[in-house]
Design a protein that fits this description.
The chain has 441 residues and is α/β, with parallel strands linked by helices. 37% of the residues lie in helices and 24% in strands. Guanine (GUN) binds next to α3.
């Protein structure tokens, strides 16, 4: 991080609250704006006419034309070891796990295998404008070490955890309640709170953990306040039926996690498609969050996420790519599918709500909205520059838009990694689309 003041001028958008609640008051948009960053943190944001005269003579102002500057994207659910199985054909969740996921994950106990893959994964995130993510490793502590080592080098705010899985998985991918506790504990001690890194206690999902292991997960959360909890919930109908067979004493799927002390404001549940009202209510009461993973939910045929219900019950929702069940690292492509899912439900996902979900909404879902997610003074200056002319088709379509709302919607419909011109981490350039080396992997 450079200890200087820098200024970035262009079209700027960021959110102050949820547009579904506050509509016009929920965002700030400056057609000709300036973002001022000092020592990696946001100093101020506003109209160029107001801010430029206040800057010292030696402050360099970088101009961004034909684009939109906004906070970096937040991905609230993704698996780094699944990068290489994106687009694996033909199965729904449980068979997909057996056929594709478990074999690929079994390789991550080898640091030499894991390291370049962690590097490639983090590079993909930045290439797609994602500056913070909640990330699954594998059952191997080595996978998490490889991930955090690289994330620390890039100075990105990242959350990761070792999978806890002590049944219903291949032998080479299972731990035990005790070993998962000890290994997670050692990783928490080593990485949680180091620089911008956080640890997430990560039981894979109810079917692959015994009650004893889930108790151990709860114990870790009690022993280490501030640590995250990350798992899957109610994604697929067969999975839900399996959970009710495995835990007959529990009232519903969420109750399995609840009975083991796994619900809190730093708990993130991926999917949550097939929930009943009392589950939404309990998520809301405990300030737990859901991660909406549209490309995955369509690709694996899991179902249509009920965003309206989550809003009605006041449940925090972030957006997840869920790579490799999901089919893209791009939050723009994820929003493209998010819109279509709501269409199939007879609901409208507005462009404002979409970009809220991808930025401040995700930060709130992760309980990190005091640090990232918008340009409030003092926040960490992770931001991106989106290019309105990133493809010929987008350029031509943008010529036929009349305001920022229409442009935002076109960004989600036609945008992808080509649309992310630059990504900044704490005010420093971390990805430049026009000066990119080819990946070594
Ligand atoms: N449920 C349990 N494990 C997984 C996984 O790896 N991906 C998805 N999408 N769902 C899961
Ligand atoms: Zn997942």
């Amino acid at each position: 991080m450079s200890n200087t003041t820098k200024a970035f001028r262009g079209e700027i958008l960021h959110f102050l609250s949820d547009p579904a609640k506050d509509n016009e008051q929920s965002y700030q948009y400056f057609e000709d704006g300036v973002l001022v960053v000092k020592d990696g943190l946001v100093e101020t944001v506003g109209l160029a006419n107001d801010i430029l005269p206040t800057l010292a003579d030696d402050v360099v102002v970088k101009q961004h034309d034909n684009g939109l500057l906004m906070p970096g994207f937040v991905d609230t659910h993704i698996h780094y070891p699944q990068t290489e199985i994106i687009g694996s054909y033909g199965e729904q969740l449980l068979e997909w796990l057996e056929t594709y996921t478990f074999p690929t994950e079994s390789q991550f106990g080898d640091t030499y295998f894991a390291k370049p893959r962690a590097q490639f994964f983090l590079d993909q995130l930045l290439t797609n404008g994602t500056t913070t993510a909640l990330v699954f490793g594998t059952v191997h502590p080595e996978s998490v070490d490889a991930f955090f080592t690289q994330a620390e080098e890039l100075n990105v705010r990242m959350i990761c955890g070792k999978v806890m899985m002590d049944r219903n998985a291949p032998d080479n991918l299972t731990d035990t309640a005790e070993s998962s506790y000890e290994e997670s504990k050692a990783l928490i001690e080593k990485w949680h709170g180091k620089g911008r890194l956080h640890y997430a206690v990560t039981p894979r999902f109810a079917p692959t953990s015994t009650s004893e292991q889930l108790h151990k997960a709860g114990q870790l959360l009690e022993e280490y306040p501030g640590v995250f909890m990350h798992t899957h919930l109610s994604e697929n109908k067969n999975e839900c039926a399996w959970v009710s067979d495995l835990f007959p004493e529990c009232e519903n799927y969420l109750d399995v996690y609840d009975k083991h002390g796994l619900l809190s404001k730093r708990s993130v549940f991926a999917h949550g498609i097939h929930l009943c009202d009392s589950e939404y209510q309990r998520l809301s009461d405990t300030d737990s969050s859901l991660s909406y993973c549209p490309t995955s939910n369509l690709f694996l045929g899991s179902g249509l996420f009920n965003l309206k219900k989550a809003e009605e019950f006041n449940v925090d929702v972030g957006l997840g790519t869920d790579v490799g069940g999901g089919t893209s690292f791009s939050q723009l492509q994820t929003l493209n599918e998010a819109y279509k899912i709501q269409q199939l439900r007879g609901e409208k996902l507005t462009a404002l709500k979409s970009f809220y979900l991808a930025t401040l909404g995700g930060a709130s879902a992760l309980d990190l909205d005091d640090k990232i997610g918008n340009f409030t003074p003092g926040k960490e200056a992770d931001f991106i520059v989106l290019d309105y002319k990133s493809t010929d088709l987008m350029r031509v379509r943008m010529n036929n838009t009349k305001d920022i709302l229409e442009r935002l919607f076109v960004l989600t419909t036609l945008g992808d990694d080509r649309t992310v011109r630059e990504t900044y981490v704490m005010g420093d350039l971390a990805h430049d689309r026009n000066n990119k080396k080819t990946s070594a992997l």
